[in-house]
Amino acid sequence: MYSLLIRTAVIYFVVFLIMRFMGKREIGKLSVLDLVISVMVAEIAVIVIEDVDRPLLDGIVPMVVLMLIQVGTALLSMYNRKIRLLFDGKPSVIISKGKINRDEMRKQRYNLDDLMLQLRENKMTSVADVEFAILETSGKLSVIPKERVEAKETSPEVKEAPNVDVETSGHTPLPKGREKLIPAGYRFEILPIPLIMDGKVQDENLIKIEKTRFWLKNALQAHQVTDFKDVFLCTIDHKGKLFVDVNKKKIT
């Protein structure tokens, strides 16, 4: 009995320290990788506690290895978006402009009861009042109501992207009012749309909104930015509002 109590206390503190070293991401955002590691750590802890004849190191060493795997992948995903997408996946648009995307629900095996439950949790009583509902990679439903999308107030750091575009010859800016910043058929998988992440231009998103790097560079000039590498994050919303966060070390 004393051996069992001691083993339980030791494993408790080991698991506690491992979860602490894994960081708040493990608790706040339970991705598939995080879920697998959490389940495995719990299973290993139970086996070591129940089998009093097994050395404690048989449980501690595998748990430490799992911790190193989780921390290592988290660090890699910080600097490589492809790895982030590989482990975390992409968000799924369940509702777009008040219309339910049945194909995406079927693909994610997401039923109407789940949808209505999470809409109620977001204090939404009607699907018609939802501009976008996005199923995040963590399983949480992010809901953007229509009144928020239609609101005219913007934060001080958000500016409208300039009304410039690139024609096939001469790079001539289009007259104001003729361009569409976001194509009508664009599916908002991510709101807002990232154009630059970690100093790297997201060319696939530029293509989706029918823009070019030349247009983006002109848009960044309003923020006194001349090099894409100086930008930590640049996003654009459905109204063409541009948000730019510049790397502090680049500011002089």
TrEMBL record:
Topology of this chain in the membrane: Multi-pass membrane protein
Keywords assigned: Cell membrane, Membrane, Transmembrane, Transmembrane helix
Gene3D superfamilies per record: bsu07140 like domains
Location of the protein in the cell: Cell membrane
Domain YetF C-terminal residue range list: 80-236
Pfam families from the UniProt entry: DUF421
A Gene Ontology cellular-component term: plasma membrane
Transmembrane segments: 6-23, 30-48, 60-79
PANTHER family: UPF0702 TRANSMEMBRANE PROTEIN YCAP (PTHR34582)
Similarity field: Belongs to the UPF0702 family.
Protein name: DUF421 domain-containing protein
Protein source organism: Paenibacillus soyae
